[in-house]
Amino acid sequence: MQLRDDREPFERAGARVVLVGIGTPERARAFCERRSIAFDCMTDPSRRAHRAYGLRRGTAWEVVGPGNWLPFARDSLRRETRQGRIREDPMQLPGTFVIDTSGVVRYAHRNRTASDNPPNEEILRVLAADPS
Amino acid sequence: MPHPEVGDRAPDVPLLGGEGEAVPMSRLWRDRPVVAVFLRHYG
User: Fold this and answer.
1) A54-108 pLDDT, tens per residue?
2) Is A19 helix (H, G, I), strand (E, B) or coil?
3) Which of B11, B30, B34 lies closest to A53 in CB terms?
4) What are residue B23's phi and psi, to 5 degrees?
5) What is the distance of C-alpha A4 from the center of its chain?
């Protein structure tokens, strides 16, 4: 998922966007305040949730390999998307899931590299098709 | 490692909120569909 400027379409779709990091609650709060992120910022320090959703640690190729260079360079140009010092596990691979109100997974994306986040449109399409 | 896919029941595990309180994920999806974005880090 791409996080910037995107609260509105998700609200219109009736969804709650929850970010799940792996640092402390204080770090999550500071990160979300600094970047003015309007979504719920939760954390999973034990990584129990990351494991439960099948999110694994990546290899060096997946995390810092050539596929990540362009997105990394692009994000580095903007202060609000520039990566800070990583104090948690830099090898954790991200993922995005849509879960409906009956607790069923409607969309599952596990990043193959650190930067292949799904486009918001893909997630919004799932929400539009399944307005539970 | 579990690997929930589309159509499977989502694992209901607790997360920590901004004040360090435990929040079961099921509470998040009770009233609205949830987009859960798992990040590598907060940084």
Assistant:
1) 997 777 666 666 776 677 777 767 665 666 655 566 677 889 999 999 999 999 9
2) strand
3) B11
4) -125, 115
5) 11
